[in-house]
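Input (Alkaline phosphatase):
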Amino acid sequence: MANFSSAALALLFITAPCAGIQPVSYRTFDGFASDAHAAPMSMTLVSRFYVPYNLNAASLAFGMGAAEQISYDPIEKYVYAVSEQGVVNVVDYKDPAGPVLEPTLGIDLTSVDEVGGLTDVEVCGQWLFVSMAAATKTDPGFVRIYKKALRAKSDSNKSAPVLAKSVTVGPLPDMIKPNHECTKVAVANEAEGVYSQELLDPPGSVSIIHIDTGAVTPVSFESIATSDDELMSKGVHLPLPLKAMEYFDLHSNQFKDKLDFASARANYKPVSQLEPEYVLWSPDDSKIYVNLQENSALVEINANTGIANNISAYPLKDWSASGASEGIDTVNDDKCLLEHKPGFASMRMPDSIAVVSVDGKTYILTADEGDDKEYGKFESKQKFKDVIDSSTSFGSDFEEFSADAATLSEAYSNFGGTKMRITIGSTAVNYTNPEKPVFKKAVGFGGRGISIFNADTKEEVWNSGSAFEKSQCAAYPWAHNGVQDEEFASLTGTLYKSASTSAKTKEAIEEINDPDQDGCSDGGNGKPGACPLGKTVDARSLKDGAGPESIVAGVACGRLLAVTATEKQGTAFVYDISTISSPKLLFVHHLSPASETKNPGVAYGDHTLGDIDPESAVFLESHNSPTGNAGIMFGGAWSGTVSFYEFKDASGNKCQHRSYVDFGTSGAFCFFDIMSALVIMLAAAI
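Output:
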């Protein structure tokens, strides 16, 4: 009987159809991991593709947002890259080492009058989704649903995406995410406020699109945001609550004649303070998790009823000696100096989140970047020296503020006379009496690392502490808390010359290219210009430090990994989170080594520039990878790059799937481990 069972098992193994083989999934990581020694210890570049900012293959330039977001279709092996210039490009990864542009498959939305900027792109099953703001930013935005591009046996028969329907959603749909069955799409309607003579700030919300019909279930946050006091009592950060508006509008000697919040105050609703940044589905698709970056908070939605169940704040990160860190670098001295700061904390404010399920429990991973708000002359982020003038007094801009002597003295001892960025939002200032706001404590932006939370209890399970600044400095001291972004574009480049580029951005580019201001005498080509990353060490230490942007999770070499990358420096951090309560940093990897000695314009010109502003990433488990080896793709928003890496273990071996899977338009065709099955059959025969 035992022999028959073994033979039957072997036969089943050989003949099992592809659909019956369940690939390893990051969503259900339940103890099947290989030994920790098998974990990846490096990643190697397979290819890097420079995406044009429009559908013309020759339209290549730094700073144009050519790869603002990316999505990969593992069946057709196409990457979709959404450009800030109003197009979606399609890149073919049939040859992963030599990807090519498919110009006939791209989508051009530049001539659609009602459409503003494109914000996100996702592919799921047979569908392609593109989100976009309205031409007037505060008006309802749109999500276009397409039948995705299809590969054919001959290149001449490839089919471009076909529009199926256009769906109206909330203002500024900044992020979209299909559920795992590709039947619904969750949309994060960020609804950013706009100040022009007065403030117009629509409420943030979520839309759930039913793909088959195009019907929309709107999810309002009003039931969980009944008052400012209720939100603040839960620790939710409000950048500009009603009482703060009253202070700046009526009582601030510095700002009352420069701002007009009268209409905004008259029409104020607490929900207008909530701005969804990122959405993800729970592993069973029953819940939607909504990350509110500017509020440093998380909303949980019942995906079946479309009702927001609750809102919870991410805890502040304590940088004092009693906090779980080795300190923070807040000194611009070109060194890696970690110090504890008594009484100082920062808001996590994650940009993106990831969801994993380990041993039956769901966890939320956060990339704690930090962010702020600006409305006209109002800025929620201020230089410390402009807020607090001495250990006993406030600066003239905030002379109406008050504080107890100990709080003021402690804050000043930490940052007196510096440009350390702190918030003047609700977490730091009590505006209950708008004539005399009370400064509670100095609070910074961003957690300078990643965190893990229990999705059910919302309790923190783990945080990376000071590992980002410490490890980045050890591996790439030239990148420590440095900066490269679109403002480092060349004065002769496309961004600076573009008629659509704002005067403010052009002025910033001029300053950064001027050696007498923020530029360098040698930008990497022997000529004056913007500084290379290697000449900007510590430039972000007084702001958000090593602020991570995207975070993704998946399985490679039998280990559950979390991968994130910093926005301003382009440093990737790869963690083994198989033991969810005690992750291990495996390695760090810089995404643009050329940036050490070359500014973006110079490096882009000679095609050595890597990923600048890696705003999106796609984790490719081996069964979804174009090579059959586990890896990751990064999309560099400002560099306009898509870079594909493969993971390798300590011996240099790639992380291969036990079965080779070749995806094609006719379905899945699999080759299984026949030798293993034959061994079982032999044992049965004996």
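The chain has two domains: 2-21+661-685, 36-225+269-314+349-370+454-658.
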